[in-house]
Design a protein that fits this description.
5 helices; alpha+beta
Length: about 190
């Protein structure tokens, strides 16, 4: 872990001096310098007092960089096509088994010829158009603003039943991060 560098970066970004941290925490400047250069590992209680002085949650200091907030700008989204229907899929974010995608269904397009199943759970929000969602014996017509969720291990299918493009925001949660992109929708 690189806690010291995180502490230094936060301190500098907030224009806080080592002396100010030491005044608030009671720690010596030499000790704080060693913490920031990762030459010593402070106790949790000490980290908690440093976090309070920096006005950040202790958990933030303990997180690895890849566990912190990630940002995908609109122009940086990865876009792919899926299936024979060539659904446009914009990958919005992915983190620890959760994927968020924006899926554009052309008129009449669906997630496949037949219902399919895969690991995980899905939540959908219809942003534009009208879709038919089917899973087993359940089916529903959903319009803009409607949402639905299901366990993806049961065969399921989503079809655009409107005359125009339908757009659906889909969140997929899986136990592993290796689910294929083909398992995303519906």
């Amino acid at each position: 872990m690189d806690i010291g560098s995180t502490i230094r970066a936060i301190r500098k970004r907030k224009s806080i001096t080592i002396a100010q941290i030491c005044e608030e925490t009671g720690l010596s400047q030499g000790f704080m310098s060693q913490v920031e250069t990762n030459k010593t590992s402070p106790s949790i209680a000490t980290l908690d007092s440093i976090a309070k002085a920096l006005n950040v949650p202790l958990t933030y200091l303990l997180m690895k960089k890849e566990e912190r907030m990630t940002i995908v700008r609109k122009e940086e989204r990865k876009a792919t096509t899926s299936g024979s229907e060539k659904l446009k899929v914009e990958h919005l974010s992915a983190s620890k088994g959760i994927k968020l995608m924006l899926v554009e269904f052309p008129p009449g397009a669906s997630t496949g010829e037949v219902p399919h199943a895969h690991q995980g759970e899905e939540s959908h929000l219809v942003l534009q158009g009208k879709v038919l969602a089917e899973q087993g014996e359940d089916s529903a017509l959903l319009e803009e603003g409607d949402s639905f969720s299901w366990n993806a291990c049961a065969p399921h299918l989503v079809r655009n039943v409107s005359d125009g493009i339908s757009v659906v925001l889909i969140a997929v949660r899986t136990e592993t991060e290796t689910e294929s992109e083909a398992d995303f929708a519906g």
